[in-house]
Amino acid sequence: MLMQSYRRAYTTNQGNGRLSQEGLLRLMGQVDPRYFERYNHSTVARWESGATRPTRERLEVFGRALNLTNAEIEGMVRLAGISEDEASAGTPEALPIQQANETAPTFPVTESDIAAPVKEVQTYASRVVRYSLTRLALPGLVVAGSGYLLASLGWNASWIMLLYVNLAMGLILVQSFLKLRQTSELRELFFVSVFFLLGGKILLAPVLRMDPYGFYAIGNLGGTPIPYLLAIIANLLLALVAGLMFEFLWRWQYASNRGASSAFGRAGWVAFPPLALVYLIAILCSPLGTWIYLLLVFSVLGAATMTLLMLRDQQTSFNEWERRLLLQAAVVATIVLAALGGVAAIVIYLEPSFLSVPDHTLLRSWSIDFEKLGYSMDELMDRYRIGAAWSALAILVYMVIAIGGSLLVAIHGMDTKKEDGHAAERLPKR
To answer: Is the pLDDT higher at 137 or at 406?
Structure first.
């Protein structure tokens, strides 16, 4: 009943709602991700009813999640009837963070102590497999199957290829945003953003009839849907690697005691290394223009992701005035970046640069066979203008609505410091 009393007393910032059982697990999940992965609201109901006897480890995670003082946590432990012997027989995670770092456990290692890490690794591995199947295998099969069908039927008109690419990318976006709506995971937004920003060059590929990786120059693939199919699958794979790396770094920085000491450092370690890895691969496999494009959009994505991570960090707190100031700054930054993106799209259309035309990478170079592509070299500039303008517009709309909108919503709904010094409910998911 004591846990239920604390949960019900932990209201939202507006004071018109209580912390739900699912919300409690989300908060406890930032302290220890096992609580979000393994338990549900029925488990919390058993805790609160007394059907399940509490442990010191659970009460300490509960207390840290709700920003209770050490005295309040110790009071819950005593009221729960946990003896000193039981308390000292806990795991290192059950101790306060600073105590676990300073002293080594002196209790005997039991069979359950050995099995727990193994079970945690197995749980994480199953999450990785499930995530890979839903984000790569299932949409990849749809994209590959539809592309192969078009190729077997010989349907290779430019408008058909443009429709195929847009529908394929749209399918993956819809799937990811439906998942994002259900879970609010920052990792999902990161995954779909990496995929769509990589796909910016694929949006103009059907107009040029050239994919950004040069698959069209391999054998007899030119003029067929296969190059676009392979490019979309390659982007899906890169986005999946970035998403899994994001998840791993998040656990390292936020779910262990080995992360950076500051909220800024933790957010930076999670947001930028996956983008750097994808960018390095792009440098090897793409022309110079793609390097410049990805450098710009990945910088914006990394900065936005860092901001979102810091807003969800337990060490970050703002008062109402600071929240409003931050919201105004985010609105101004979004408007300025949108204006700059619009200007860039106009410049690209008026003064096209052929640095992005895929006829070389660091690994290889090739000659463009315009006869196989079905148009003359004189048409290249007009086709590039149309494709580049459409691609720039799509990327601009995505960054303003998806990335900028997510940032504004997060700031608008963020928690501010209360008079009693306790922060309201956070949503500390990946």
So the answer is: 406
Question: What are the backbone angles phi and psi of residue 154, rounded to the nearest 5°?
Answer: 75, 20
What pLDDT digit, counting tens, does each position of 284-296 carry? 998 888 898 999 9
**Which residue type, as a one-letter code, is found at position 97?**
I
Q: Which residue has the tokens 């997060």?
A: 410
Residues forming beta bridges with residue 318, ordered by sequence position: 416
Say if residue 181 is exposed, middle or buried (CB neighbours under 10 Å; 0-12, 13-18, 19+). Answer: exposed
| Residues β-bridged to residue 18 | 11
pLDDT at 8 over 90: no
pLDDT of residue 101: 40
∠ at Cα 77 (73, 82), nearest 5°?
Answer: 160
Closest CA to 116 of 55, 27, 172: 55
Between CA 66 and CA 30 the distance in angstroms is 11
Which tokens hold the place of 395?
A: 């990327």
Distance in angstroms (rounded) separating the CA atoms of residues 38 and 30: 13
Closest CA to 369 of 148, 221, 212: 221
* Cβ neighbours for 275, distance < 8 A, ≥ 6 positions apart: 194, 242, 298, 301, 302
372 vs 91: CA distance, rounded Å? 67
Range in 46-55, 112-121, 195-204, 233-242 with the lowest mean pLDDT: 112-121
Count other Cβ atoms within 10 Å, centred on residue 21.
Answer: 18
Averaged pLDDT score across all residues of the chain? 79
- The pLDDT value given to residue 299: 95
H helix or E strand, kind and range, residue 330: helix 320-350
pTM: 0.72
Residue in 390, 399, 400 with CA at minimum distance from that of residue 201: 390
Which segments of 181-220 are extended strands (E)? none
